[in-house]
Design brief:
CATH class: Alpha Beta
Distance between the termini: 19 Å
Shape: globular
Structural class: alpha+beta
Order of helices and strands: EHEEEHEEEHEEHE
CATH architecture: 2-Layer Sandwich
CATH superfamily: 7,8-Dihydro-6-hydroxymethylpterin-pyrophosphokinase HPPK
Number of helices: 4
Number of strands: 10
Helix content: 25-40%
């Protein structure tokens, strides 16, 4: 049975636009996963230390038969292939960051994977792309994307690419 999951992508090192686009391609090539929707690319200032480049962010919606932890393992393998290291601290610069934001209606407090992503309602670089690809999305315990955007009260991040990217799923 396939489940719907939302993956956040971010990069601010080593040609961030290309890193995010390649991350999307790598997700397209995952076994047992199909991309349904891809947001535009957004540019945002870093959340943590400000002495690092701005980020490029996007969100993809996938259908997958992978359970959350195996999906996380696949995404972390992609990060590693793209040169991601985990020695830069919590909000340090990175070549590629892939986060499972939502996985169906799954709620998890597992220390390895918290679902929904704990920062989802506080991050414009997540909420605006989510709203773009699924404005009717409702997250149990948090509410609708539109309500979260109103509560956040932050402007939309700068768009890099305002047209949704084409999806070419392998046959």
């Amino acid at each position: 049975m396939n489940c719907v999951a939302y993956i956040g992508l971010g990069s601010n090192l080593a040609e961030p636009i290309q890193q995010v686009l390649q991350g999307i391609e790598d997700i397209k090539n995952l076994e047992h996963a199909t991309i349904n929707h891809i947001s535009s690319l957004y540019q945002t200032p870093p959340m943590g230390p400000q002495d690092q480049p701005h980020y490029v962010n996007a969100v993809v919606e996938i259908s997958t038969s992978l359970k959350p932890l195996p999906l996380l393992a696949c995404l972390q393998a992609i990060e590693t292939q793209r040169g991601r290291t985990r020695d830069t601290g919590r909000w340090g610069a990175r070549t590629l960051d892939l986060d499972i934001l939502l996985y169906e209606d799954t709620v998890s407090t597992d220390p390895i994977l918290t679902l929904p992503h704990p920062g989802i309602a506080l991050r414009s670089f997540v909420l605006y792309p989510l709203n773009e690809i699924n404005p009717q999305l409702h997250i149990d315990g948090l509410g609708s994307i539109s309500r979260m955007l109103r509560s956040l009260n932050q402007p939309c991040p700068s768009l890099i690419n305002t047209k949704n990217l084409d999806i070419h799923s392998p046959v």
